[in-house]
Amino acid sequence: MAPDTASPHLNVSLPHQAVQVARLYYEQGLTTDAIASELGLSRPKVSRLLSHARRSGLVEIRIHDPEGESQGLEARLHARYPFVRSQVVGVPPGSGEELWLSRTATAAAGLLNKLLAPGMRVGLAWGNTLDAVSRALVPRTVQDVTFVQLNGSANDSEFVSGFVNDTILRFARNFSARAQLFPVPTFFDEGSTKQAMWRERSVRHVLDLQAQADILMYSVGSAQAHTPSHVYSAGYLDAFDRQTLAAEGAVGDIATVFYRADGTWDGLSLNARASGPELSLMQRVKESVCVVSGLGKVAALHGALEGQLMHRLIVDEMTARAVLEMGSGT
After folding, report:
1. Cα–Cα distance, 21 to 39 (Å, whole number)
2. 59 to 41, 49, 80, 143, 171: CA distances (angstroms)
3. Contact present, 83 and 310 (Cβ < 8 Å)
4. Do 49 and 76 sit in the same domain of this protein?
């Protein structure tokens, strides 16, 4: 067995060494014994590096089965919504929505790990789905990355939400990155108050970071979700707000900015008081990633797709099928 000592030119970082081993194994077809011999590593070390490459997202293994349900749904989504790259996550027959969310969150965590590069800014819209994604991340250090909160989290019962802060900070700590929180109300009492605050330098700093984001990650909010979206369940909306949204035809929200079944958002009254960004930001940013799981979010996801409010979609297969059925009128 080769000793676990590499020559000086192989004394490199763990991610680089893992990529080196993965290329030899997956692209050139070398055995672990051959790789160990070539690189001067032990066979267990090679196995550990291969495992690290898979866990951290450096290697993504997907089985392309022409008869596979997930691949078929991805093809149908692409045919109907060619602007979006979809990843449909397979789930066991008869499984519950908690498992669907867990598997979808793991897939989203893997995608973020693959997309993230030094110097990037990542905008995050908080909620139950992004909280699940934050818990599925694999630790990795990426230099000079900033995670910025896209919408405020304060309401009349607490100024700073521990749920929201914990989610954003979990992302940042996972990648040894910075976190830019946004300690403003989720919804202002008056639109004029929001406009005045948006002129403050400290607030403008956060808004500028949001506008400069390289990646956005978010879900769609819905009052009908199996586990109601946090904005609906944690006291951010009162009865009058809910009645107004229903009367105006809102079907969902992204970063607490609401939209209709056709994906439009102009003229919805609550948006004038909302702290989230204009939804056109999701169209402008190259990597806008929408993560959705659960049948209660089907109408909200359908509206977001109709409005082209994402460039990537990660969704469980049950929800994907329901969205396609809704779009076809069946």
Report:
1. 9
2. 20, 11, 29, 20, 21
3. no
4. no
Give the whole-angstrom CA distance, residue 126 versus residue 143: 23
60 in a domain, yes or no? Answer: no
Report residue 272 as tokens.
């004038």
Q: Who contacts 328 (Cβ-Cβ below 8 Å, separation ≥6)?
A: none
* 38-84 pLDDT, tens digit each: 899 999 999 999 988 888 888 877 665 544 689 999 999 999 999 99
Beta bridge partners of 124: 149, 217
Domain annotation covers residue 300 = yes
* Pairing mode of beta strands 178-180, 85-89: unpaired
Q: Which two tokens stand for residue 167?
A: 């989610």
> Would 145 be classed as within a structural domain?
yes
Q: Is the pLDDT of residue 22 over 80?
A: yes
- Classify residue 281 as left (phi > 0), alpha (psi -120 to 50) or beta: alpha
| DSSP 8-state class, residue 27 | I
pLDDT score, position 66? 46
CA–CA gap between residue 197 and residue 28 (Å, rounded): 57
Q: Tell me the two tokens of residue 275.
A: 């702290």
Amino acid identity at 298: V
Q: Is residue 29 part of a domain?
A: yes
Q: How many CA atoms lie within 13 A of 299 on its CB side?
A: 13
Q: What is the pLDDT of residue 3?
A: 42
The DSSP H or E segment spanning 125 is none
What is the CATH classification number for the domain harbouring 136? 3.40.50.1360
Looking at the fold, whether 43 and 164 belong to one and the same domain comes out as no
Containing structural domain, residue 15? 8-55
| Partners of residue 259 on adjacent β-strands | 252
What is the DSSP code string of 277-312? PPTHHHHHSSEEEEEE--GGGHHHHHHHHHTT--SE
